[in-house]
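Progress report, Aim 2. The chain analyzed during this reporting quarter is listed below.
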Amino acid sequence: MAETKVKKMLFILSKASIENVYAAFIMANGARMEGIEAEIFFTFFGLEAINKKKLEHLHVATVGNPAMHMPTMLGGLPGMEALATKMMMKEMEKLDIPPVGEFLEILSDSGVKLWACKLAVDMFHLSEKDLIDDLDGILTIGDFYSRANSDETHMLFV
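Predicted structure tokens for the chain:
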């Protein structure tokens, strides 16, 4: 393993579309595999990725997503989001990428810290019991920023 100056990666996840969630999860998992500490801060709609009732029902964003290579109007047709989600999940399954709930367990077991944003939790009237059991806690943004207090820490907004 090559020596790296990065010792810790902090990811901020603000959207729970499948492409954003898996991007954060894969990067956090990759960091751990390289011996780098990793933490994910779930804020605003990113909380759906750790909400027990919603985490297995995330979708691909088809409207306003330029990577879909389709007109916005087409992406908004009934069933288009479900179809795109099904197709993406099928491709990820072929690559042996675990479903969201299982991936969260893998991340937690590997040492990735999982944090919920206090402001967003309060704003959406959630409590800790609504969120996954592997959650490390609910932090204010100030608490989260204090976890980045090192020259070898990088923060990435997903």
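The domain at 8-62+99-150 is CATH 3.40.1260.10 (Hypothetical Protein Ychn; Chain: A,). The mean pLDDT is 90. These observations will guide the mutagenesis work planned for the next reporting period.
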